[in-house]
Design brief:
410 residues, alpha/beta, Rossmann fold, 6-stranded mixed beta sheet, 4-stranded parallel beta sheet, 14 helices, 36% helix, 16% strand, binds pyridoxal-5'-phosphate, binds zinc ion, Threonine synthase, EC 4.2.3.1, TrpB-like_PALP
Length: 410
């Protein structure tokens, strides 16, 4: 069987540039650096893209997938709304603000984007089982995608995740294994499994398929630029778990510039973490280039990676673009979820509370320009993290169905 990865021609090491054949590998044999997809792009025009489907496959000529990818059974994620957030902008004093609302994906988080690309890699390599280590959203995205693609699924999570995320991952079938430990321990276990006969023919979307998986995040950059009318935003606030999404959004913007699809103008990238798991923010503030691992303790479980693989690259990007990395407390996360909901009618999961909370903090401390066009990401659905607003999980009043009782209550 010959491999078909469309415009992707090789894997290359982010650290030393060594090149490898496209395969299910993720670390450089020379220096152990991470491998990423390298391309030879053809002529890509705005018109080609605009005539494509209303999902991530409109960008297939920029992704490591075969040209006929849209014809195969898959989840067709992407082309989520870019919401003009005038009310939230007014509340925060930002003139031009948009929310890129990725809760609108098939399994209600941004993870459907990355998994869709990983499924194509799994098919290319003849894997029969789709797997991952997950902080919650990835587990559901993988089991759903496997169901639709006709693959087996076996996914691994820290055992103490939100109920909604556990139920969501199980409803699609496959096996969901809870591990008594942190996400970082789950991830290490998966690396071990890859080397064992037990994990043979398994595609771990964020481990041995990571170079393909990670490219899915570029579609967020492409969509934002296209939805702004083929223009880069001046400022963008992105959540950080492993840091992959942030680094790939930056890669996506740079590709659009290089291909002449948008004008080359400066943009600032801001990273957002929860204070209970803020190793990248801590390193940014201290001026360090290395990220010290932490043990996470936050309600933003989807972002609770204590040893983020792409942390150093995030630091580079934030510094190079003139952005920053900031963090907010659990109380600020909850307040930000409510602020976004009550101003724009968008119910974000805790990760969206992190980005909106950080956005607020950055404006208040003068590091974000309130006059510049700004995009903030909401990467997941509030229904998955109801506990964060459990204080509101009751009516404002319970009355008998009579006008007198209502009058008395209001
Ligand atoms: C996974 C995830 C992210 C980002 O993860 P990275 O590892 O940094 O790419 C952001 N938001 C939500 C809700 C997620 O589930
Ligand atoms: Zn290398």
């Amino acid at each position: 069987m010959s491999l078909d990865f469309g415009p992707a021609t090789a894997l290359s090491c982010r650290e030393c540039g060594a090149r490898y054949d496209l395969g299910p590998s993720f670390a450089c044999l020379e220096c152990f650096g991470p491998l990423e997809a390298a391309y030879s792009f053809g002529d890509v025009t705005r018109a080609d893209i605009e005539s494509g489907p209303a999902n991530i496959w409109r960008y297939r000529s920029l992704l490591p997938v075969p040209a006929d990818v849209a014809a195969k059974p898959n989840m067709n994620p992407g082309w989520t709304k870019l919401v003009q957030a005038g009310n939230l902008g007014k509340a925060l004093g930002i003139r031009s603000l948009y929310v890129k609302d990725d809760s609108g994906n098939p399994t209600h988080s941004f993870k459907d984007r990355v998994v869709a690309i990983a499924v194509e890699a799994a098919r290319n390599f003849g894997f029969h089982t789709l797997s991952c280590s997950s902080t919650g959203n990835l587990a559901g995205a993988v089991t759903a995608a496997a169901a639709r693609a006709g693959l087996d699924a076996c996914v691994f999570i820290p055992a103490d995740l939100e109920q909604a995320k556990i139920a969501m991952a199980r409803v699609f079938g496959g096996r969901l294994i809870g591990i008594d430990g942190t996400y970082d321990e789950v991830n290490r276990f998966c690396s071990e499994l890859i080397g064992d006969p037990l994990g043979d023919k398994w595609g771990f979307v964020n481990v041995n398929l990571r170079p393909y998986y990670a490219e899915g995040s570029k579609t967020l950059a492409y969509e934002i630029a296209e939805q702004l009318g083929w223009r880069l935003p001046e400022q963008i606030v992105i959540p950080i778990a492993s840091g992959s999404q942030l680094t790939k959004i930056d890669k996506g913007f740079k590709e659009l510039i290089a291909l002449g699809l948008v004008e080359d103008r400066p943009y600032k990238v801001f990273g957002a973490q929860a204070q209970g798991c803020s190793p990248v923010s801590t390193a940014f503030k201290a001026g360090h280039e290395v990220v010290q691992p932490v043990k996470p303790d936050t309600i933003a479980k989807s972002l609770a990676i204590g040893n983020p693989a792409d942390g150093p690259y995030v630091l580079d990007i934030a510094r190079r673009t003139g952005g920053a990395v900031e963090d907010v407390t659990d109380a600020e996360i909850v307040a930000a979820i409510k602020l976004l909901a009550s101003t724009e009618g968008i119910f974000a999961e805790t990760a969206g509370g992190v980005t909106v909370g950080v956005l607020k903090k950055l404006v208040e401390t003068g590091r974000l320009d309130p006059e510049a066009e700004t995009v903030v990401l909401n990467t997941g659905d509030g229904l998955k993290t109801l506990d964060a607003v459990s204080g509101d999980a009751a009516p404002t009043a319970v009355i008998r169905p009579s006008l007198d009782a209502f009058r008395a209550a209001v």
